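Quick one, T. Sequence first:
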Amino acid sequence: MPTFRHVPAAAGLSLVVALALTGCGRGEEARGARLPDPQGSWAVESLTTGGRTLHAPESAHLDIGPNEVKGNYGCNGFTAVAAFAGTSSVTVTPGASTTMACADMEFETAFAKLFRGKLTIDRGPDRLTLKTADGSTIAMTSAPAATDAPLTTTEWTVESLVSGGTAASLPAEAAGKARFTIAPDLTVSGSLGCNRFSAKATVEGSTVTFGPLTSTRMACEGAAGEVERTLTALFAGGPLTAKVDGRTLTLTAPDGKGLTAKAASAAE
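Structure tokens:
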């Protein structure tokens, strides 16, 4: 027969309180300051939807502010309005987005479909998961806030041509060929996609003006030729508004035409 040890009532009560306090302390530690604020910079790792997991391109990310979100689906950039209910949920209203044809459109389309409406927030140390009503998820890890690449000294690779609110990616046969660098002395050099060129730039605040272009004279046909003619007209057309956001440069003319370019990484 088991033997029961008699514990005085006062001692038993003290033991219960001690255990409760210990458990509370551990709970507070688990739910404490180490859990990240949903607001901040997040690198998207994957999406889970329809019983499948889609792994994110390297550039997919969210920069979540108090009321606004800026991000990248992996290729196309976007903005959205965010309305938080504490740290437990957020309601996302999509805003503007570029419309380039990208390599991984399956991921881009799925991301855009999931990142809208009311999303439940699940936090863990250095992790954030957003969950839709049907159980689909966007899994992210914390990322340091991106620093803007310098306008000068950076090699910029043209990724898309802009017309008004629409950005169209370069044709496959022209992709990656149009590059330029603005040196510290504001000398510009690079390739228009076929011919190499040089020029002198003037920078005043957020405005960049390219002087007359000097270029080689190879005959350029097809898509590369079309891109070259468009870039030549843009650079020669007068002042351009320059905006650098992380590793992306946008140059826009007063008529809404322009380009987006990506900064080369250290490996490149």
